[in-house]
Design a protein that fits this description.
The protein has 162 residues and is an alpha+beta fold. It is 29% helix and 26% strand. Helix 3 runs antiparallel to helix 4.
Length: 162
């Protein structure tokens, strides 16, 4: 059975806009059709701030993959595009995170859905609220617009005009 999912894309190494454009057909082939694209936003690095600004975007897709297969495919896509994981919050070519998998809650050692840090990160909440403002967080029982308005993150998130 197909499930609506929300993924975040991020990156700050190489030509991130080009990398995003290249990942869309890969996601559609391996994950499922893209239903919605948010705008692309630029933000200062989060966590490790001594690096280039990030570009971020949120996509809504339809997938038939169960959550564990989905995360395995996303990690494989990241590797295929050249991502090497060395440390947390490092510069990266591409970061693909599962924000929501329908209204499911997954708590496993290698996977937590909804994404546990989503309520604290404006760089994800702003593009997510742009395409899914009414979506209800299955744990917090609030919609994305409300969670965004309550977010304690004060970092600047700038919408790119492309």
């Amino acid at each position: 059975m197909a499930t609506n999912i929300y993924l975040s894309l991020g990156g700050n190494l190489g030509n991130t806009l080009e990398i995003f454009k290249n990942v869309y057909p890969i996601l559609e082939k391996k994950i499922g059709p893209i239903l919605q694209f948010s705008s692309i936003y630029q933000t200062k690095a989060w966590g490790n701030t001594n690096q280039a600004d990030f570009l971020n975007q949120v996509l809504e897709l339809l997938t038939e993959l169960p959550p564990q297969e989905l995360i395995a495919e996303l990690l494989a896509i990241e590797s295929e595009l050249g991502r090497v994981r060395k440390q947390q919050w490092e510069a990266r070519i591409i970061d693909l995170d599962i924000l929501f998998y329908g209204d499911q809650i997954v708590q496993e050692s290698n996977l937590q859905i909804p994404h546990p840090f989503l309520p604290q990160r404006k760089f994800v909440l702003i593009p997510l609220a742009e395409i899914a403002s009414a979506f209800i967080h299955p744990v917090l029982k609030k919609n994305m617009s409300t969670i965004e308005s309550e977010c304690p993150d004060s970092s600047e998130v700038t919408k790119l005009s492309l």
